[in-house]
Design goal:
Blueprint lengths: L11 E4 L4 H12 L4 E5 L2 H15 L3 E5 L5 H14 L5 E4 L14 H28 L4 E5 L3 H4 L5 H21 L5 E7 L5 H9 L17 H12 L10 E4 L10
Parallel strand pairs: 1-2, 1-4, 2-3, 4-5, 5-6, 6-7
């Protein structure tokens, strides 16, 4: 039997859709014919990518300027996506920020911003799109977590907390959404070549990250996009409340 990663074929809303992992998710989904609505604060980039996806893959693709730290903006964006897409049966929360502030230097406003964007927006996005997800059989949600949610990192406690919280809230939401047949899972990337990661790569000696990875290399955004596409498809119809780790063998590594 041939796999069909394009089913159920409903539209998908993707936060942080203009770059990095969010962009890779949008490209992977559009490539199998799924309509997409991209939410991002980068106006020019999100509109340009939506136009490119529509031209390249012949799908409905909408670029929306959305600040997911703002609950009202999420509600408004959900209504626009509802009007623009033929249906909505998927939600990917890939938007994220990182703030290097060890506990002794933590600023409350910065902590709140990281948690609001990385974690709270997942819950509020699901809430805003819940009528659509309930209405479309096969609906699914994916939150982009991180191996930092498991490993921890002294430099970025707010980011670590947000990703650890995502692992927990996904399990909680799965208990609720399962009553409507809606699946929700998380993907925990390792060290992926994204704009967010590039700053750390440039600041450290070559090979700093690679030496711990069993596959010996950094990951590419498309490798996360493929995992997300699978979890949103009917191929993963019995997968919910799960964490899919895509890290090239980092968490399990004992290499120094």
């Amino acid at each position: 039997m041939q796999a069909d990663l394009g089913k159920p074929g409903t539209g998908v809303v993707i936060t942080g859709g203009a770059s990095g992992i969010g962009r890779a998710c949008a490209e992977a989904l559009a490539a199998v014919g799924r309509p997409v609505a991209l939410w991002d604060i980068q106006a020019e980039a999100v509109e340009s990518l939506a136009a490119k996806l529509a031209a390249d893959y012949g799908v409905v693709a909408v670029g929306q300027v959305v600040d997911v730290a703002d609950p009202a903006a999420i509600e408004a964006a959900a209504q626009v996506a509802r009007e623009k897409l033929p249906s909505i049966g998927g939600f990917v929360h890939a938007a994220g920020v990182v703030q290097e502030q060890p506990v002794g230097a933590t600023v409350v406003e910065d902590w709140d911003r990281v948690l609001n964007i990385n974690l709270r927006a997942l819950v509020l996005g699901v809430q805003a799109l819940l009528p659509d997800l309930r209405a479309n059989p096969g609906s699914a949600v994916v939150g982009i977590a991180s191996i930092n949610g498991t490993l921890g990192n002294a430099l970025i406690p707010s980011y670590t907390a947000s990703k650890g919280g995502m692992l927990s809230v996904v399990r909680s939401l799965a208990d609720d959404l399962g009553n409507d047949g809606i699946r929700i899972n998380s993907v925990s990337p390792g060290q992926i070549l994204t704009p967010m990661m590039q700053k750390s790569i440039d600041a450290l000696p070559p090979g700093t990250f690679e030496r711990r990875v069993l596959l010996g290399r950094l990951g590419e955004p498309r490798e996360i996009g493929s995992a997300v596409r699978f979890l949103l498809s009917s191929e993963a119809s019995y997968v919910t409340a799960s964490e899919l780790v895509v890290d090239g063998g980092n968490i399990s590594s004992q290499r120094m």
